[in-house]
Amino acid sequence: MRLMLIGVNHRTASVELRERWAVPEEEWPQAVQRVLLHPSVEEAMFLSTCNRVELLLRTSTALTDAKSILAIACSRTPEEFHDHIYVLHDLDAVRHFFRVASSLDSMVVGEPQILGQVKSAYAVARSVGAVRAELDALASRAFNVAKRVRTETQIGSSAVSVASAAVDLAKKIFGSLDDRTVLLVGAGKMGELAARHVMSNGASRLLVINRTYERAVELAEEFGGTAMTFDPWMEAVALADIVITSTGAPEPIFRAVDGEALMKRRKQAPVFFIDIAVPRNVDPQLNKRGGVFVYDLDDLQQVANENAGNRLKEAERAEAILAEEVQRFAGRVATRKLATTIVSLQEHLENIRQAEMDKVRGRLGRLTPEQESAIEAMTRGIINKVMHTPVSELKSSARDYNPETTTLVEVLRRMFHLPTPDVSRVGNMKDESVSADKNEPAGRKAAK
Amino acid sequence: MPHLWLILALLFYGLATLAASATLSGRLIAPLRWLAPMFGAGTFFHLVSLVESTVQNGKLVPADLVQSESSLAFLLAIVFFSIYAIWRTEWPGVLVAPPVFLLTLASAMGAHAPASADFSGTPEGLIYVHIALIFTGYAALILSFLCSILYLFQEHNLKSKHLTGFSTRMPALATLDEISERALQAGFPFMTFGLAAGVAVAMAMHGPMSIFEPTILLSILLWILYLFLLFMRWKAGIRGRNAALLASFATVLAGFSWVAHYLSTFNPGGGVQP
Question: Which chain B positions have a beta carbon within 8 Å of A303's beta carbon?
Fold first, then answer.
């Protein structure tokens, strides 16, 4: 299998460059079809997101014009991007593809969208017939690897932006945000954005308090909410579960001394203050009162940073999983090649045996059935004994996913002038990956 | 045979406890997924053990402390599964698994001793109803207490603004609070009718009796505390630290009451040395 991955991403090219090469999803089929016109390209998958444009290929021969093929897919000239394009081969391509699908190569490591985008790329390529046995197997494996990374690590479990961190925290307090009431104090741009984010995550009702009542009414109407006056504020807070504050008040509006009265009024129901104002609108001491949770901008940033740090730690664990999966994949490819090579070798030796048998028959004349049978048994026995050790060694090497297997198979093939393995003869790798999960790859079965 | 089934149940409860410990260590999350199946297998074998034991002894309910430990562990597991079925969260099991394991272990270690309690002279069936109801009430109370502990822990994490390890995967405070409250609400009728059945049994055996008899006094105190806990949740909305404190007090009182019943000669089947 000759695999190749050609692409540009957020590490190799600026957004100005990437946006020039980006291809909208509805044009992916044409992009893949343009690539398939190349005589050496047998299978292809094309992916274009805001952070990457990549082409995964299986080719019949080594390509010298790989970068041009990406340009063809994007309907651009290769010169525009030449220095920013990376080209990866075989196992490096497999590793990169697994990393992309598992969101380890994303700008925000662990973000969940990329897997959906890779699945879309696969679906598009499949719909135009650009994906067959090899890439099909590789894509299936990549989806499994991505799932494994998600399940066995916490790479995508926490929010890494301030707004998402606030929503995550709210969910940790209230569970679902459905039927929750949000009070926005100060209808500035920042507050409005924060409120919009919380409301888009399921909160059902928005109350708005603003110095200018008209602005409060305007914003409340946009969300189907209610504008309120600040005085008395406790009444408004008693109605809300999440309070977003972003006024320009120089002193805290919500003071610790009011905490007891507030919580009594709320019958101790928890309240979450998201204080994005500078100077702060909520006295941090209020956080000490049971049921009151106060997060200011720095706290939210710290949570987001900690989450990002945790993701990086998890990414290290994910890389270990990936290394294991790449080796396993390499082992599977080697096993399949091994199976076809052994079959070819058996056929080759059988042909030699038959030819020699014919010569012997010519020299000795007509043989009795007993003599014929004895010579058959003897020649078969010689072949089996000669083949036994190398085949056992190769099987053992493949069983251990030893990367050396590919080299050994290649050597064997050259020594006996065997034809290039046609892996399709032993079934496609999708079946193999299924049986491999039961520790028994189909290719390996064939090798037996 | 019942002992063999109990050992099997113990084995699975032990595995569930290991999964709980691995989860609490904060390094691994995957074991949490094993908790419910392990608990389920343990509960199944526990049920088989209890049924066989009942058939063999001809008695439906725990006849001594050893058997009562086993029954309480089983009821705790059942209450956990009720919670799991409604809220789809294994987290209460993280704290329920160890006591269930320990109660079953204590029961398995003492199971070779013959049941020594004598219920003769008690109204037919009523003693069984009394113990079954009271134990179900205890199990609900313990579950409520354990959920309050989880609530306190998660509230502390949220207030300290430091959510790491397994706390990032814990259920929301609102969910823990709801489980804790519902468990209390569900357990109260069992506790009330269990107490009433207990009084009926005692009156049938001893005639009119003093409210100051220690086991009766403890039971009534526990019931009043339980009622107070429910009332405070309903009226003042107490949760978090205060709810956990009250629930822990009630749980300790329940423990005393339970042991007192098995030590008291006043109680049918009592006077048994644990």
Answer: 161, 163
- Global model pTM greater than 0.90: no
Alpha-carbon span B80 to B70, nearest angstrom:
15
Confidence of residue B113 (pLDDT cuts 50, 70, 90): low
Do B18 and B141 reside in the same domain of the chain? Answer: no
Q: Does B163 touch chain A (CB under 8 A)?
A: yes
| CATH superfamily to which A3-152 belongs | Glutamyl-tRNA reductase, N-terminal domain (3.30.460.30)
Q: Which residues of A are less than 8 Å from B172 in CB distance?
A: 171-175
* Chain B residues 89-128 with CB within 8 Å of chain A: none
pLDDT per residue as tens digits for the range B78-96: 988 888 888 888 888 888 8
How many whole angstroms separate alpha carbon A331 and alpha carbon B54?
57
Q: Are A66 and A59 in contact (CB under 8 A)?
A: no
CATH code at position B39: 1.20.120
Give the domain-ending residue among B110, B145, B164. Answer: B110
Domain count, chain B: 2
Residues B103 and B129 placed together within one structural domain of the fold: no
Q: In the annotation, is A74 catalytic?
A: no
Q: Which residues of A434-443 are buried (b: 16+ CB within 10 A; e: fewer)?
A: eebeeeebbb
Looking at the complex, report in whole angstroms how far the Cα of residue A225 sits from the nearest Cα belonging to chain B.
24
Domain A162-290 in CATH 3.40.50.720: yes
B202-232 residue pLDDT tens? 777 777 766 677 778 888 888 898 899 889 8
